[in-house]
Specification:
about 70 residues, mainly alpha, 2 helices, about 85% helix, rod-shaped
């Protein structure tokens, strides 16, 4: 019974399926790496803006226009 299953298996189709699966995994890994880099950059920008906002709070006085 197993030999009949193996005989009916098309190696070309298996190769294509493995190639597609490999491409999907590779694309997912690449996507996740780029997202991690973007997240790190965004967190750095937010920390920088928070630091700038904290510095500006001391300079602000009501009625004082900048």
């Amino acid at each position: 019974m197993e030999s009949e299953l193996l005989a009916g298996l098309n190696l070309g189709a298996v190769a294509v399926a493995l190639a597609v699966l490999g491409a999907v995994v590779w694309a997912l890994i690449l996507f996740l790496r780029e997202n991690r880099k973007d997240l790190e950059i965004l967190e750095e920008e937010l920390e920088s803006e928070r630091a700038d906002d904290d510095e500006g709070v001391d300079d602000y006085k009501p009625g004082n226009r900048l």
